[in-house]
Structure formats: structure tokens, C-alpha cells
């Protein structure tokens, strides 16, 4: 059996930038998200993102609770943010 | 429609006949994971079947491995499109584990250490189609591949073969698990290419 020493590996939340840009007009990686499980607020860029899966799974860096999930099928994107209480999204005033 | 179908090239090689639509063969064993790998000591491991009326049937590691085991050799088909042929496992058939369980349920929700869930019809766990596997290729199953024990349901896409299996809840209706609730097909038959909802 092949052992992958990095099988516990995750990427930071910047891995979400491309996939989320298909859905949202703003870059969400600088948004602040509050974990629905532990209540800690962190930038999306600090989430732990598991990309070697049938979808993207982002977890809270403090409690590992799933804060965001995304699946991309040929025709649709599926997004679950039930693990995030709220996102604070910086918007530059024109 | 022409006399000769497009793409017809005579008799397919054996490997292509064993490949469900949209799949490619790999000789590797890719590790897919939606989170940190749980590390469960055998002395702490437990597997519980809970019926729709709340009856619980539990096995610890010693009890599981004392049951009659089988050595299925099966092909695996991952929804991310790789297939791996002739994988050799050791485990206990769900026919054995569910033999004494009284239930009128038609569906199950399988749960794992670490929080993963996946649902399917109870029928798909019976009749020699599914195992609680604790050996792979003559050795223990490493944690990254779901050890100490994982569900093995090879006739469905491999996300149904829950790693780090912890329990089965019997249910009167089908309920979506971790991937089924996010666009993946409720059933997941590779030969009908049931990858996403609506396939």
C-alpha cells in the first residue's frame, strides 16, 4: 500500500479563491468568518482547506469544524456555509 | 446513425470492460480525505448498529476480529474518476453483523470517527456485497486509508465505503450524508454513472 506522508495535508484558505470566484464577485479570502461551532472569527484565508476529496472542505483552524464546503459538477456549483455564522466582507467605498 | 457506431474499435480489452463509464484505471491508491485523519487505537475502537427503535448492537475490536472473516478481491471506483482493480481485503461481512439485528428499516446512515456520514439502502449492505474491512493486501489498513476498519461497499462509488467506520443507524427513509447533501448522487452506481444529483 502506498503511504502518503502528507495525507493529513491541507491548504490554506487561499485555495478557495479560484473556486469561489466562479460564484462571487468579490474575493472572499479576506472576509472574516465566524465558526458556527467554536465562535472564533478568522479570515477565510486562514481556514484549513482539504482539496484532495470529491469537493473542497474548509475547516476552522481552531476546532476543525467544517465551515464551508463546495462541490463543482459540470453544470452546477454546490455551496454549504452552514458552518459559518456570518461573513464580514470588506468593500472599498468608491 | 451510421452503420458503424462512432468509436467502435472491435472488442474492448479486458480492462476497458471492467471500467465503468467515465473512469480510468490507476495502479496507485489515491488518498482522498475531507479532514484530518482520525487515529483510533484498536482498544478504543467500537462499531455499533442502532436500529430504528433504538436497540444497539456493539462490537469491540476483539469481538469483530473473532467473527468469521472473508477475503474479498474487488474493483474500486472513485467518483473522482479513478478505478483500481483487484484490491484484496479482509473483513467481516455485514450479513454476519446484521444477522441478529431485528429491523424493518430500508435505509442506513453510516457514520465514521471524525464525523463523516454516508447513506444508502440497507439492501446494498447485504447478500455478500459489503464488509467491515480491517485488512488490506495482507496487512492492517493504514489510518489514511480508513484503518483500523472501514466499510467496503465496492459496487457503489467509493465515497460510500466510509473510512474509520464507527456505526450504522438503521432508518425508515433515505437521508443524505456528507457528500449526498452537497450535490452527489443519493445512490452512486458507477455503472450508471450516478455521480451527481439528477444523473
TrEMBL record, chain A:
- Origin species, per record, is Streptomyces bathyalis
Q: InterPro entries attached here?
A: DUF6510 (IPR045423)
Highest taxon listed in the record's lineage: Bacteria
> Know the name of this protein?
Uncharacterized protein
From TrEMBL, chain B:
List the residue ranges of the region (Disordered): 1-35
Give the Oxidoreductase molybdopterin-binding domain ranges: 35-179
Task: Specify the superkingdom.
Answer: Bacteria
Species the sequence originates in: Streptomyces bathyalis
Which PANTHER family does the annotation name?
Answer: OXIDOREDUCTASE MOLYBDOPTERIN-BINDING DOMAIN-CONTAINING PROTEIN, PROTEIN-METHIONINE-SULFOXIDE REDUCTASE
Query: Which Pfam families does this chain map to?
Result: Oxidored_molyb
Would you tell me the protein name for this molecule? Answer: Sulfite oxidase-like oxidoreductase
Amino acid at each position: 500500500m502506498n503511504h502518503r506522508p502528507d495525507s493529513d495535508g491541507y491548504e490554506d484558505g487561499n485555495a478557495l479563491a479560484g473556486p469561489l470566484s466562479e460564484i462571487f464577485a468579490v474575493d472572499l479570502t479576506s472576509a472574516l468568518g465566524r465558526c458556527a461551532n467554536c465562535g472564533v472569527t478568522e479570515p477565510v484565508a486562514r481556514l484549513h482547506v482539504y482539496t484532495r476529496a470529491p469537493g473542497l472542505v474548509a475547516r476552522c483552524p481552531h476546532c476543525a469544524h467544517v465551515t464551508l464546503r463546495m462541490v463543482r459538477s459540470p453544470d452546477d456549483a454546490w455551496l454549504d456555509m452552514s458552518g459559518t455564522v456570518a461573513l464580514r466582507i470588506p468593500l472599498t467605498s468608491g | 446513425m451510421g452503420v458503424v457506431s462512432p468509436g467502435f474499435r472491435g472488442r474492448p480489452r479486458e480492462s476497458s470492460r471492467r471500467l465503468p463509464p467515465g473512469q480510468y484505471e490507476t495502479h496507485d491508491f489515491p488518498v482522498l480525505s475531507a479532514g484530518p485523519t482520525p487515529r483510533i487505537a484498536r482498544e478504543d475502537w467500537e462499531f455499533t448498529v442502532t436500529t430504528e427503535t433504538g436497540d444497539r448492537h456493539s462490537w469491540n475490536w476483539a469481538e469483530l476480529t473473532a467473527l468469521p472473516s472473508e477475503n474479498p478481491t474487488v474493483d474500486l471506483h472513485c467518483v473522482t474518476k479513478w478505478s483500481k482493480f483487484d484490491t484484496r481485503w479482509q473483513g467481516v461481512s455485514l450479513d454476519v453483523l446484521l444477522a441478529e439485528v431485528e429491523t424493518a428499516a430500508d435505509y442506513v446512515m453510516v457514520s465514521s470517527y471524525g464525523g463523516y456520514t454516508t447513506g444508502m439502502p440497507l439492501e446494498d449492505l447485504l447478500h455478500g456485497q459489503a464488509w467491515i474491512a480491517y485488512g488490506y493486501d495482507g496487512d492492517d489498513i493504514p489510518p489514511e486509508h480508513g484503518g483500523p476498519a472501514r466499510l467496503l461497499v465496492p459496487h457503489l462509488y467509493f465515497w460510500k465505503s466510509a473510512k474509520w467506520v464507527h456505526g450504522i443507524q438503521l432508518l425508515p427513509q433515505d437521508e443524505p450524508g456528507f457528500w449526498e447533501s452537497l450535490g452527489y448522487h443519493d445512490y452512486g452506481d458507477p455503472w450508471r454513472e450516478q455521480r451527481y444529483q439528477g444523473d
